[in-house]
Amino acid sequence: MQKFEITGGIPLAGSVRVSGAKNSALKLMAASLLTTEKTILYNVPLIQDVYTMADVLRAIGASVIISPGRVEIDPSGDLSYTTPYELVRRMRASITVMGPLLARQGRARVAMPGGCNIGPRKLDFHFSGFEKLGARINVEHGFINVAANRLTGDVISLDYPSVGATENLVMAACLAEGRTVIESAAREPELIDLVKFLTSMGARISGAGTDTIVIDGVDELGGATHTVMPDRIEAGTYMLAAAVTGGELEIDGADPRHLEIFISKMRAIGVGVDEYEGGIRCRGGDDYRGTDIATLPYPGFPTDLQAPMTVLLSLARVHSIVTENVFENRFSFVDELNRLGADIRTSGHHAVVHGNCRLEGAIVEAPDLRAGAALVLAGLAASGVTEVRRIGHIDRGYENFEQKLQLVGADIRRVEAGEPAPSPTPFN
Ligand code: UD1
User: Fold this and answer.
1) Which DSSP state fits 331?
2) Which residues of 195-218 are buried (b: 16+ CB within 10 A; e: fewer)?
3) For ligand 1, is residue 19 a contact (CB within 6 Å)?
4) Residue with CA closest to ligand 1 atom 3
5) Residues 245, 272: one domain?
6) Atom 33, ligand 1: residue with shortest CA distance
């Protein structure tokens, strides 16, 4: 029920500290269900999705204590195996409790994720992987039921390197009997972070970061302490904030190794990017070249930075072509961005971004998390006042977003709006 009001045109300057990665923290929290001992996670971002995942774990029967930067999870009591619709509806990542519950409890009953674009097809890699490990699956009355007496390792060849399916299957396989090999696995840094955590709990896993992951099942896992990796998507978002405002920001804590293709594209456009001990410095300019981008699984260009990058491309001197290969319908922000003065046309999974635009403040609505962040960036670059509505989407994934931007000079404030709550989306 809140919105951002942004007065744009101010070059940002100073330093921003990057938070722990949302897409890692959520899976680490789910993985904590694999043991009966306590786990402690540090550098956890205090964002809405983390609170939702805490509610998911509590609904299952674990105790979760959240304090700044720290989450303590105690799953020692009797656990249920059901995840309610209301929580899964709010956050698709709730489905990552399926693997841990199946491994520890022998069954899981998880509400089918809601949202307009999500259907059974979108979980087919999770399902076929669980079946390979010996589980039985049925979907009825809007719930996914998955059960197995004891999971047994096998070779699982994914049709596509799905991040969520790889994570679910790695977690399930940790307690399976024998060896599981996952081929065409996702290679995302967040998956490597999850594997580090599982290894410190006693799991035997090799190959994380390559497309073949080998898991030798163990009888039980113990508690562990882990520090969540930095959020590469948040880091990229602040780099783009520097670029679109023609400012200069140091992104403390960002790891440039997680952003190689993104950084090479930024340099190709004409943004200055330097690494320093413990972070990335990003220097904007006022004359950008266009470049084409195509999203792909890691290490390709991240789909989560596609919308924010499109804002920068709309300021470039010439046109660019953006190709979205990971998700369907991920150009929902384009009409909103065009309302701010961009000139972008889409056709299927391509967008032609005509450069040379002068963005001007207007009222826009955030259609999802990353698109919402992109509209904030556009507002920071635009002349005059921009109102970004439905910012509940942005609160799901960015810790202290407006405060961090204010600290580097942005004129952005949160005001009550009386708008409807955001509906769920399949992205992020
Ligand atoms: C995760 C990230 C999200 C990121 C995405 C791709 C979290 C919480 N979210 O989402 O921010 O944008 O990776 O990097 O970590 N698919 C199927 N069948 C399946 C599974 C996936 O068809 O069984 C399709 C999806 O519909 C989508 C594509 O594969 O089109 C990628 O999905 P996936 O890699 O699974 O992304 P998520 O884990 O949902």
Assistant:
1) T
2) bbbbbebbbebebbeeeebbbebe
3) no
4) 428
5) yes
6) 162
How close is the Cα of 6 to the center of ligand 1, in Å? 31
Residues 15-68 have pLDDT tens digits of 999 999 999 999 999 999 999 999 999 999 999 999 999 999 999 999 999 999
For the segment 334-354, the average pLDDT, to the nearest whole number, is 96
Do 193 and 121 lie in one domain? The reply is: yes
Instruction: Assess whether 174 carries a catalytic annotation.
Output: no
Chain mean pLDDT for the chain = 94
100 and 165 belong to one structural domain = yes
Closest ligand 1 atom, CA of 49? 8
CA 34/CA 201 separation, integer angstroms:
9
Residues forming a β-bridge with 323? 294, 350
Q: Are residues 30 and 90 in the same domain?
A: yes
pTM: 0.96
Whether 185 maps to a domain, the answer reads yes
**What number does the ligand 1 atom closest to the CA of 297 have?**
14
Q: Is there a single domain that holds both residue 284 and residue 382? A: yes
Ligand 1 center to residue 210 CA distance, Å?
18
Cis peptide upstream of residue 11 (ω within 30 degrees of 0): no
Phi, psi of 5 (to 5 degrees): -110, 125
Assess if residue 422 is contained within a domain: no
- Is residue 109 in some structural domain? yes
| CATH number of the domain encompassing residue 330 | 3.65.10.10
One-letter identity of residue 418: G
SS (HEC) of 376-409: HHHHHHCECEEEEECCHHHHCCCCCHHHHHHHCC
Number of structural domains the chain divides into: 2
Q: Does 106 share its domain with 215? A: yes
Nearest to 342 by CA among 375, 373, 293: 375
Dihedral sign from CA coordinates of 180, 186, 189, 193: negative
- Whether the predicted pLDDT of 422 surpasses 60: no
* Nearest CA among 338, 288, 334 for reference residue 307: 334
Q: How many angstroms does the Cα of residue 166 sit away from the middle of ligand 1?
A: 10
Partner residues linked to 280 by β-bridges: 251, 275
Q: Give the residue ranges of DSSP H helices in 61-188.
A: 85-90, 98-105, 124-132, 163-173
List strands edge to edge, sheet with 363-365: 363-365, 385-389, 2-7, 411-416
Give dist(CA 382, CA 245) in Å, integer: 9
Q: Where are the beta strands (DSSP E) in 197-247?
A: 204-206, 212-216, 225-227
Structure tokens at 32: 């904590």
Give bridge partners of residue 211 from the DSSP assignment.
none
